[in-house]
Amino acid sequence: MGGSRDLDTAQGAAVDAFLETARRVAPPSGDAPRLIFALDATMSRQPTWDLACGVQAGMFEATARLGGLAVQLVYFRGFSECRASRFVADARALTGLMQGVTCQGGRTQIGRVLRHARNEAGRSPVKALVLVGDAIEEHIDDLCGVAGELGLLGLPVFCFHEGFDPAVAAGFAEIARLSGGVSARFDPTAPEVLAALLRAAAIYATRGLDGLRLAAHEDAAARRLLAGMTGG
Question: InterPro entries from the entry (predicted)?
Answer without folding.
Answer: vWFA_dom_sf
